Amino acid sequence: MLFKKTFTTEKELLRGCLRAERKAQQQLYEQYSGKFLAICIRYVKDRDLAEDVMIEGFMKIFEKLTQFEEKGSFEGWMKRIIVTQSLLTLRNNKNLNMEVTMDSTLQVADTIYELKHLETAELMELIKELPVGYRTVFNLYAVEGYSHAEIADLLGITESTSKSQLNRARNVLKQKIADQQIKERRING
Questions:
Q1: What is the pLDDT of residues 17-30, one digit of tens each?
Q2: Which of 19, 56, 121, 162 has a CA positioned 20 to 30 A from the CA of residue 114?
Q3: How confident is the model at residue 3 (pLDDT cuts 50, 70, 90)?
Q4: Could you give the angle at the alpha carbon of 164 between the alpha carbons of 156 and 120, nearest 5°?
């Protein structure tokens, strides 16, 4: 009879991965790959590229496991590696410009918008449509919880640029939400 070993606690799983046990590595991958792919897609819109980024991130996780000091959340430590890998991909891809010039920003009027009927999936789709720089800073600040100083350090920009990108991202999202609601009102009468 074959016995499939499963690791029931995070500590057991971590210890198994540190011993380079394939079953532990597979379980870790299966447990977090969906969540980490979603993170990668938030930064890198192309799903195939996001999958590559996630796999590279897992490779780094396995390489650096000995550096995890068990002082905080293991998931949080891994998530930081995945986010950093996504940012490195953005930085290394010459076709992705992190900053958006002032000429291309939207001037948002004092439009009334409501979040009452907006589903999470719809909001995530609107975020995906943001320019790369806006989307990246918005995700790091609003979703991941990084400070502007941390974002500036991660992206190689100034804190004021981070704040500006976040403000512009919020304004674009407000406008998109307002436009979507106007469109829905026209359809629904």
A1: 999 999 999 999 99
A2: 162
A3: very low
A4: 100
Q: What are phi and psi of 112, to 5 degrees?
A: -85, 125
Q: What angle do CA 19, 51, 22 make, to 5 degrees?
A: 20
Residue 184: C-alpha distances to residues 6, 111, 134 (Å)? 49, 15, 25
**90-146 pLDDT, tens per residue?**
888 765 555 544 334 344 344 344 444 557 778 888 888 899 889 999 999 998 899
DSSP 135-177: HHHHIIIIIS---HHHHHHHHT--HHHHHHHHHHHHHHHHHHH
Q: At a CB cut-off of 8 Å and minimum separation 6, what does 123 contact?
A: 173
Which residue type occupies 87?
Answer: L
d(CA 174, CA 117): 14
Q: What share of residues in the chain are helix, strand, coil (percent, to 5)? A: 70, 0, 30
What's the pTM? 0.74
- Cα dist from 174 to 43, 100, 104, 127, whole Å: 20, 18, 16, 11
Give the residue carrying structure tokens 């999470």. Answer: 120
